[in-house]
Write a sequence for this structure.
């Protein structure tokens, strides 16, 4: 993974910068000792590490503003960090950057059950947002699997999803407003406790911008009343294609479960060996959860069972009580742990149209054989968000590179069948150099134009999301002046489902 | 001008000085000076996969055609795009591009989200004549910046939509409405909050003509169960209600005066209505649990003077010199919006001034 060469000018500023930062925040909030900055050298993509120049831990929006204003004046790049759980390297530092961690911004500022909102500081963890409202029977819907640790700031940066977004949507659908600090220290308020924007939907583009537009310090989030109950059913199949068809038929029948999880045979076996959840040894396993009142649950499960019966299932197991429900989920929830016990793994998260499921699983199996690396698939089938886990041994020279090459091939396949590179983890550095596969020059230019407006000097998290060659001029030259007139067009066009320009993009990459 | 293809549209915009007044069906009262540039030549369904809940459709396709297609498969656009023709006295056929460009969203906003929440992907031609795509046709996609949301509600000021990709949802088997007579705004807001704070999956909470209306949808057995229990809790009875009329603010159609949409936090309904009434005679109806207030008032009134929070958009009424259609934004936000327009349409030729 290539990163820009650290700027010697910035490296030389370390002592001066640290002194200036200490003048606006408590001494313990500015971390300069190399033995301590090492704690921030990586995020969840731990294959890549680089300690930052400095790390700062502001406690207020004002301190965030002061830090950014100082870094802006001195031309120092800033990498915002939530809890550092990104699997895409979104919070990975460069040697010439200041890591701005929001962990100390963790207060609940307001809860209003009549308006069904909670306002929190952005360093608060996802699960503790629900924790603040669950006594009243409410919850915050997006539930990334790292929810015990991950921060709302990171959720907003990556537009995080979770297992239950088929019904509740992802972060962007549950975010109503933010307080955000721009790179020059300006504090802006976008949105609020009301449901729509008065002008352009800036909140929509802020969410998912990977910490490149500003540092979110406060967020207004939608909270929902918990359903009366929820119950999973597990269905095993002897054929991936049949399992995929069953998912499609359930959706067509008008049933909208809150979660439809899919595991393939390698994953089922690994999970069973690890968690002993009592899964059948079959080709594909669906875990489908429905929720609502008892009448609703019973009715939906009976519809699902009837549809499943038409697809010749190996086994249908409906949870009769909480204990059985927990056992059904046990294997799925231990999937990553089970894989970690076998080997190192890389987790991808490309999304595909659900109709392409059987084809994509077949191709992944072929590629797995070609590259000589095992791949286990566990994913959110209702929305097509795949999670292929590529197993490799980090201690074997060359195996990480081989794993990355297989990962790139799988993600390219996802785009070719009409999907995308990342469904919920974000681009970060991990998928940065694959952006050409999905977007052509004009597509990328339009996105970078947004950053030009929010962060004209390209100092916020600059080496992420966009391929380095594409962003180089902006990063070096401190941004890009606004265009004065028409530029020549000539980029290929095609329908959204048409992969023609994506293929051309591929050729270009 | 009515380009017949995306390429032709790109040529028209890239090669002309403009300014252009971008137009779909012309039903939503959005207008400006300039050469009329219609999207109705960009019509047709590109892809519909009911089993994947996805629809890709060209921007000029009539909304009615989209709704017919989905209904035939037992599906729908769950965000309930409103039909403004009766309220605004417009005619013509609404296009899906116009729906997206205005982020037109109905009562179900409180449960399933707005149009922008169902928009999976866009293709558009920017002000330089370049074709740009963003998003795609899958439901979870965080690849790059989300220009999809930015384009929803941009009223054609950042680019002309050529194709949109939407998440669709099943039509429910049954619908029930609970009705509670409640002329008092504060008590109406409390009743709506109680319904929305219940676990009964309310898909509509409105207050029209002194009645609180609570909608429940789903499988028949479940709707009956929830309606019985929620009705008992609220002291409300089931009745037939025309939700399209709620969605389209028919209560103020055929009535003289300006019509505004006011967005506030739902609990501010009573205070907001009180403040507006103190400033002059108004009639109000509420949707989104009180978060959206439809206001009928005198034609020359600047409603914003009496608004303590939220924002207001004038949807019907003649332009006044100092009272723009959209709520003026705080200076820093306005600077960002202006910066984005400058980048996407540097010559300022697309729907100039439509959003203020």
């Amino acid at each position: 993974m290539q990163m820009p060469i650290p700027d010697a000018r910035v490296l030389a500023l370390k002592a001066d910068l640290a002194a200036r930062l200490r003048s606006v925040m408590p001494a313990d909030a500015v971390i300069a000792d190399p033995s301590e900055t090492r704690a921030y050298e990586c995020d969840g993509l731990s294959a890549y590490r680089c300690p930052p120049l400095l790390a700062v831990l502001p406690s207020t929006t004002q301190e965030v503003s002061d830090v950014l204003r100082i870094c802006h004046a001195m031309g120092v790049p800033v990498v915002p960090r939530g809890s550092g759980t990104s699997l895409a390297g979104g919070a990975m530092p460069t040697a010439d950057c200041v890591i701005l961690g929001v962990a100390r911004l963790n207060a609940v500022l307001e809860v209003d059950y009549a308006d069904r909102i909670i306002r929190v500081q952005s360093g608060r963890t996802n699960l503790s947002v629900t924790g603040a409202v669950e006594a009243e029977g409410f919850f915050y819907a997006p539930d990334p699997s790292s929810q015990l640790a991950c921060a709302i700031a990171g959720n907003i940066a990556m537009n995080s999803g979770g297992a239950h977004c088929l019904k509740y949507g992802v972060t962007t659908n549950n975010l109503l407003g933010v307080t955000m600090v721009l790179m020059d220290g300006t504090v802006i308020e976008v949105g609020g406790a009301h449901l729509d924007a008065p002008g352009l939907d800036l909140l929509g583009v802020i969410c998912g911008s990977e910490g490149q537009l500003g540092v979110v310090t406060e967020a207004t989030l939608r909270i929902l009343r918990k359903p009366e109950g929820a119950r999973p059913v597990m269905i095993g199949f002897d054929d991936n294609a049949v399992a995929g068809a069953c998912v499609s038929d359930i959706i067509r029948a008008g049933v909208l479960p809150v979660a439809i999880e899919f595991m393939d045979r390698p994953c089922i076996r690994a999970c069973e060996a690890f968690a002993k959840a009592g899964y059948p040894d079959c080709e594909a396993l669906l875990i489908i959860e429905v929720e609502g009142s008892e009448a609703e649950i019973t009715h939906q499960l009976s519809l699902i069972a009837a549809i499943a019966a038409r697809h010749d299932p190996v086994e249908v197991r409906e949870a009769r009580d909480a204990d059985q429900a927990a056992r059904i989920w046990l294997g799925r929830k231990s999937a990553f742990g089970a894989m970690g016990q076998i080997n190192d793994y890389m987790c991808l998260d490309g999304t595909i149209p659900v109709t392409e499921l059987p084809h994509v699983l077949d191709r992944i199996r072929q590629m797995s054989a070609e590259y000589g690396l095992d791949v286990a698939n566990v994913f959110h089938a209702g929305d097509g968000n795949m999670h292929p886990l590529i197993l490799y041994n980090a201690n074997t020279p060359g195996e990480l590179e081989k794993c990355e090459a297989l990962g790139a091939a799988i993600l390219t396949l996802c785009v070719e069948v009409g999907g995308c590179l990342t469904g919920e983890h974000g681009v970060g550095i991990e998928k940065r150099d694959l952006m050409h596969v999905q977007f052509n020059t004009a597509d990328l230019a339009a996105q970078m134009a947004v950053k030009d407006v929010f962060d004209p000097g390209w100092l916020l998290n600059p080496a992420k999301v966009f391929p380095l060659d594409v962003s180089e001029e902006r990063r070096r030259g401190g941004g890009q002046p606004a265009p004065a007139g028409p530029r020549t067009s000539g980029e290929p066009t095609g329908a959204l489902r048409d992969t023609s320009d994506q293929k051309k993009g591929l050729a270009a990459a | 001008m009515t380009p017949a293809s995306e390429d032709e549209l790109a040529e028209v915009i890239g090669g002309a000085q403009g300014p252009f007044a971008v137009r779909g069906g012309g039903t939503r009262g959005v207008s400006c000076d300039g050469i009329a540039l219609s999207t109705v030549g960009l019509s047709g369904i590109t892809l519909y996969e009911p089993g994947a809940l996805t629809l890709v459709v060209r921007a000029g396709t009539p909304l009615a055609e989209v709704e017919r297609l989905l209904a035939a498969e037992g599906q729908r656009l769950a965000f309930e795009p409103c039909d403004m023709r009766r309220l605004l006295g417009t005619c013509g056929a609404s296009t899906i591009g116009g729906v997206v460009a205005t982020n037109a969203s109905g009562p179900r906003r409180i449960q399933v989200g707005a149009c922008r929440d169902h928009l999976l992907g866009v293709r558009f031609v920017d002000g330089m004549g370049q074709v740009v795509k963003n998003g795609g046709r899958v439901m979870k996609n965080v690849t790059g910046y989300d220009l999809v949301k930015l384009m929803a509600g941009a009223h054609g000021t950042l680019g002309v939509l050529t194709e949109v990709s939407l998440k669709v949802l099943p039509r429910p088997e049954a619908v029930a409405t609970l009705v509670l007579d409640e002329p008092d705004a504060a008590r109406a807001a409390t009743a709506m909050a109680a319904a929305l704070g219940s676990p009964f999956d309310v898909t509509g909470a409105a207050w029209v003509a002194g009645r609180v209306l609570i909608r429940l949808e789903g499988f028949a057995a479940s709707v009956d169960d929830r309606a019985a229990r929620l009705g008992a809790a609220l002291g409300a009875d089931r009745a037939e209600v025309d939700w399209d009329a709620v969605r389209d603010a028919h209560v103020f159609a055929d009535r003289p005066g300006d019509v505004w949409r006011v967005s506030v936090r739902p609990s501010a309904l009573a205070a907001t209505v009180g403040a507006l009434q103190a400033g002059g005679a108004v009639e109000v109806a509420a949707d989104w649990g009180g978060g959206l207030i439809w206001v009928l008032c005198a034609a020359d009134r600047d409603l914003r003077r009496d608004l303590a929070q939220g924002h207001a958009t004038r949807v019907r009424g003649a332009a006044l010199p100092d009272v723009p259609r959209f709520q003026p934004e705080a200076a820093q936000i306005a600077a960002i919006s202006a910066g984005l327009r400058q980048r996407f349409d540097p010559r300022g030729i697309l729907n100039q001034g439509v959003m203020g």
